[in-house]
Amino acid sequence: MPLFQYGLEGRLTALDKAMPTFWDDSCKVYALRCNIFCFLPKAHAAFGLVLLVMALPCKVKAQEVKTPPLSVGVAASGVNGAASPPVKRKRPIAEDRLEPLFQTESISSLLNHNEDALRRGDVSAGYYVSEQAFGNLMPSLKPLRDRLANHGFSFELTYKGEGMGNMSGGLSKGMDYTHEVRIAMLFDLGKLTKWKPLDGWFLHGIVMNREGRQVGWDHVGERNVLLTEVWSIHGPAAARLADLYVEKSFLDKRININLGRIALTHTYSTSVLLCTFMTMCSAPMAIREPAGWSVYPKTSWGGTFRIRPTRDLILRTGVYRIGPKAVDNTGWAWGSEPYTGIQTPVELTWEPFFGERKLPGHYKIGYGHDTSPYADMIGIVPPAFAGSVQKHKEKPRDTFYIETDQMVYRSHGQHQMAGGYVLAGFIHNTPSNSTFSNEFYFGASLLGIIPGRPFDRFGVMYSYYQLSPRTTYGQQLRQWAGMSMGAYVNAPQTHSAILEAYYGIPIVPGLVVTPEFEYMMRPGETSVIPNAVLAGLKVISAL
């Protein structure tokens, strides 16, 4: 799905002056100025699904729509490429630019520019991109939203539905559907309480409903890798409390902290581009699967600390109390949560800009140490091999990852999502006690590849998953001994891979429709189940 901006409100960062004029005869107005993306009167075929959307009449006059403001520190360019001065706007503290400790650059100083007018602020712990849908379906609520925001309360109500069907291969033909309804809230404690000591303190909260079934479980025969995002590894929840934490910046926004119940994948090993893919949001599977990473919507008690040492570097670290995946799936049962150890992630991000067109890139290296004791993945050793095969003792788990994305062309404008990206990553976990020992992926996220459709986004991604060699070895031992290899296991498991593609189409402000295609290779991490071909549709709306 096309995404253009981080943050709670989910607004389009692409600006009136930063984009060319696109004329549609069905609208007879500038599409950008009315913020309506009109379809050409023809059918779009995508990955076996045919979507026909008639031309949408624009009901807003161009001259009645105000030009959206620019983000802090972002320069816009006109159609002719001339730069316009940045315009500041009020944003939640989670999106404020993290000021550098030193007014210099690291290795970016060796590149062919010495400016950072485009340099974005830090991706904060409050960031979660999947609800982004270019505005709201109910603009009549804007006066109410503005009044509430002026008094210290902001919110975003979003719906996400994902339908995915197995068309060939796997276990059986069939389709599953999942949805998420969530409200994200931001409380400006200084404005709400009028108490001076709370100025600059913000409270983030998310409550959601999730329902549905996982197509990988029901029809494909895949239990380790999730083929849709919403169902998540934690299953359905009627009213789950996700994030609940406070945020504060210090020393003129040079230091940023978060304290409370936080999902680690809001902050570490994620990006706006990854969450355009079903199988990658909110982080790669090798990060999401281990219990110690507190994958959204699961949260952990802890805190995040951020600094920007130089203009092009961001350092994130924190300490979190870790436990197994909760038996209680509501997020409210704090007193009964088990505790097994401490997670201490650290991530360094380099954000350079390349070339005359200032093409942005994001290069991350991260490490996490979970002190929880994890058992050997070999599982049950048959009595026949007990004398020759020894189980490893329980020990902590380490995770190492490298993730990169780089813009390779600009479609329009000077903001960070105004073009096409290539991306890649590698994740390594302690092999003996992790479900996935390795994962690597590479792909592309391309904007405006169809003429006349400047804001559509096409994405393709290949992901490879390698299970722990101890898992494979243990299953082989049990197979040789004539024992069960485990639930839903029909052969020793080794690896699998997925090819995913999508085409994100903004329909009207607050509504994005995304046809999806997936090709699952080696479902169940064996060659027993035939490769599966899946197609589906994702709908995201913001009220």
Strand content: 35-45%
CATH class call: Mainly Beta
Structural classification: mainly beta
Helix segment tally: 6
Spatial extent as radius of gyration: 24 Å
Strand order of the largest sheet: 5-6-7-8-9-10-11-12-14-15-16-17-18-19-20-21
- How far do the termini sit from each other? 18 Å
Helicity level, as a percent range? under 10%
Largest sheet: 16 strands, antiparallel, barrel
| Number of DSSP strand runs | 21
H and E string: HEEEEHEEHEHEEHEEEEEEEEEHEEE
CATH topology: Porin
Mean pLDDT: 79
What number of structural domains do the residues give?
1
- Named at the architecture level, the CATH assignment is Beta Barrel
The CATH superfamily is identified as: Carbohydrate-selective porin OprB
Outline, from the CA principal axes? globular
Which spans have pLDDT < 50 for at least 5 consecutive residues? 1-92, 120-131
Structure description:
The chain has one domain (91-542): Carbohydrate-selective porin OprB (Porin). Helices cover 7% and strands 38% of the residues. It has six helices and 21 strands. It has helices at 31-34, 142-150, 189-193, 215-220, 285-288, 469-480, and strands spanning 44-46, 49-51, 76-77, 83-84, 153-168, 174-188, 202-212, 237-250, 255-262, 300-307, 313-322, 341-350, 353-354, 359-374, 395-410, 419-429, 436-447, 457-467, 495-508, 511-521, 532-542. A 16-stranded antiparallel β-barrel has the order 5-6-7-8-9-10-11-12-14-15-16-17-18-19-20-21. It has a two-stranded antiparallel sheet with strand order 1-2. The model is unreliable at 1-92 and 120-131 (pLDDT under 50).
